Amino acid sequence: MAISIKDLANNLGKSGLNFDTDNPIQLVLGQWVLERIKVAQAKLDEPKGSNPSRSSNASGSLRNSIAPETRTFGSKVVVDIMANSYWDNLNSGVNGTLVNFGSPYSFISKGPAVNDIARWIRDRNIQPQNPTMTRQELAVIISDSVKRKGIAPVPFMDEAFNDQAVRDLADRLTKEIKINFI
After folding, report:
1. For residue 41, which of 56, 31, 29, 27 has the smallest C-alpha distance?
2. Measured in whole angstroms, how far is the alpha carbon of residue 169 from the centre of its chain?
3. 111 vs 148: CA distance, rounded Å
4. pLDDT bucket at 22, cuts 50 / 70 / 90
5. pTM above 0.85, yes or no
6. Rounded CA separation 143/117 (Å)
7. Is residue 31 classed as helix, strand or coil in its secondary structure?
8. Cβ atoms within 10 Å, residue 118
9. Alpha carbons 182 and 148: distance in angstroms, whole number
10. Angstrom distance (rounded) from CA 23 to CA 27
11. Among residues 4, 29, 103, 125, which is most buried (max CB within 10 A)?
12. Nearest Cα to Cα of residue 159 among 75, 66, 70, 95
């Protein structure tokens, strides 16, 4: 039984992937998308820097926000991978005032919001090494440091959805179409 691209997209759903277990094309596309999301999430979980317990997954919010959304435009199917709004800042990195990562993003006039850093310090239960320093003072110091040094890229989306991954999807779909529809 043949299915049009538009029907395929409509059957995938608007708020995530809903699979028709009788449709091999949907299963291949859905499996590939979920595999790619797992690759992106695993990249966020990798150790960062010299501390093996430190990852790019500070609160888990970004990792948990990665999800597919499908829509159709005429005969085209678009599968967007959605994530928290700051995903590309981490994926591409942010240039500091002293360190340039070649990112399209830069800290120029100010660095990350001190309140965001303070919330991160609180959530991770980080205590200043100096007992006379408050967490708010530590947040200001960290914010200033991040402004100078920037944020190194963690290309979790670039690696998950690279050209090789797209070729892999094309190969899988071609194989399924030959097996089931030709």
Report:
1. 56
2. 19
3. 8
4. low
5. no
6. 7
7. helix
8. 19
9. 59
10. 6
11. 29
12. 66
Give φ, ψ of 104 to 5 degrees: -75, -10
Take residue 167 and report the two structure tokens written for it: 């070729």
β-pair type (67-73, 76-82): antiparallel
pLDDT in tens, 141-167: 999 999 999 999 999 999 999 999 999
**Token reading at 9:** 């997209």
The CB density around residue 47, as the number of other CB atoms within 10 Å, is: 11
In the structure, how many helices (H) and strands (E) does the chain have?
8, 4
Residue 158 tokens, joined: 């670039």
